[in-house]
Fold:
Amino acid sequence: MTLPNFLVIGAAKSGTTALYHFLKQHPQVYMSPHKETNFFVFEGQKIRFHGPGDDTISEQSITTAEAYKKQFEAVSNEIAIGEASPWYLYSDRAAENIRCSIPDVKLIAILRNPVDRAFSSYLHVVRDGRESLTFEEGLHAEKDRIRQGWEYIWHYRQTGYYAAQVERFLTLFPHEQMRWYLYEDFLIDPAGLMNDVCEFLNIDCNFVVDTSFKPNATGVPRNRLLGQLLLRPNPLKSTVKLLMPKQLRYNIGQRVNQRLLTKPSMSEETRRMLLDSYNDDISTLQDLIGRSLSAWRSE
Structure:
């Protein structure tokens, strides 16, 4: 029986999808064919979320050990065996579940300025046609949505309180099993970040990964009708899904998204309000991970 020896645990909207695809290129790495299994979040549970479009996470998440093990049946001689589920970091039960099943696993996380991460989550559900409120209205509605059982993508503000999330893992796993990166590392020097990841996973650092492709773009469609056609469920998309290979379909879809979407700006008033709410958490976090986060406060 083969299980992963490393996990990309988050944070959501912080580059985990790109890291998953970069790692898939490496010949010594096996990544689960199903990205975001969410297994250690929902293991043994019946998933019930109640927000618009929340059935997707219910349908796509893996909840049984048998189904999870099948994700790694095709492993051959790869050295690093992994998967990427960005809700592992945010979940209050994933860390304990991971330790119980694979206590020696290596853990990788990318942390993003929580203000920008919150806005990116908002743009994600806007892109998918699920959010009808402004960002400020969504922040105001967040507590009610959480109480009503909406899935984690709607937790715009709450997901960005990283300190308690990081501490859960630091309490359960030795420091040498974990790597904490910043989203800025990913943007400024993706090749350098990948080199460090390869060293951490004990795989060939000389293999050159193509880091030019930036998947999972978020934003608002430039053209509403075209956005509805390409981004929301419809018969044409269903037909293409049946006829086109999955990886080709994904690559084309991501490149179309990058050209189709435009990113609006957050108001400075909202940015300052959110930053004030995260200030103490950022101070705690930088002590936990041993990285200066002063740039987050100055942005």
Summary: Residues 268-289 form the longest helix (22 residues). The chain is about 50% helix and 10% strand.
